[in-house]
From TrEMBL:
Protein name, UniProt field: Peptidase M48 domain-containing protein
Keywords attached to this entry: Hydrolase, Metal-binding, Metalloprotease, Protease, Zinc
Upper lineage: Eukaryota, Sar, Rhizaria, Cercozoa, Chlorarachniophyceae
Pfam families: Peptidase_M48
All residue ranges annotated as the Peptidase M48 domain in the record: 85-276
Molecular function terms from GO: metal ion binding; metalloendopeptidase activity
Annotated cofactor note: Binds 1 zinc ion per subunit.
Family: Belongs to the peptidase M48 family.
Entries under CDD domains matching the protein: M48C_Oma1_like
GO biological process, one term: protein quality control for misfolded or incompletely synthesized proteins
One annotated Gene Ontology cellular component of this protein: mitochondrial inner membrane
Cofactor: Zn(2+)
PANTHER family cross-referenced by the UniProt entry: METALLOENDOPEPTIDASE OMA1 (PTHR22726), PEPTIDASE M48 DOMAIN-CONTAINING PROTEIN (PTHR22726:SF18)
Amino acid sequence: GACVGGGVVYYALHLEQCSFTGRLRFMPSSRQWEGKLSEELYKTQLSAWENDGVSLVRDSDSRKMRVVKICSDLVHAVPLVERALGKCLDLSKDQLCFQVTLIEDASTHNANVLPNGHIFVYTGMLDLCGDGPKGDARLAAVLGHEIAHALLRHPGERLGGCHLLLATHSIFSFVASALIPEELFDLLHAPAIMQLESLQLRLLDAVVSLPNSRKQEFEADYLGIMLSSAARYDPKEAPLLWMELADRECEHNASTPEIFSTHPGWDDRSEKLREWQ
């Protein structure tokens, strides 16, 4: 009882309101810790790429220069969006590094961001976006989305979600061990117990973490398209790119039921993007 009570107090003390959306969220980590974690994650990822023989695109490469230029345009648009919406973001653009690492991997159509604003982009995403003004607008939508995640401290929030998930799992496991007779545990084989624990984690994830994750994606979509528009990139390309990504997902049979997905459905996201234009 004392542990549960202490956990509730800890949770309540680390609730904060997102200044941009007004949404309450659990944020147990400090910005300084998130920055240090980002540095360690970057080093770990670099080592993994080196071991796997993955190449990074040089700074002098025109593709890298293109990504950096679009990223810079979007970052400089942050104050314009804040003034237009009358809202302040959780982090200012000066509190994040917004460095870009371009990975030579034509088969991967993805981009992601660390808590400190370091953005990873795969060359496959550049190929998918295409060239010219249309391609730049599509790439701006992708980069704007990732920049928005960093500005809204979504990576830090996801760390908090992991803490909450593990704590909830521990409580459920403790209660189960107290209520279920030992004789029943003895009848279950180790693989069966592991499967039950895996199912429990998956269900808890669907209830505790994933709904917030999908909210974060909508928030990043919204702020991202605002940044793209303010930086004078055509926002109409964003929903078109999202639908193309949806088609590719269907082709590879990679679709996941939304309740078990970290992202909202592509159709929902595309529809929202059209509404926000």
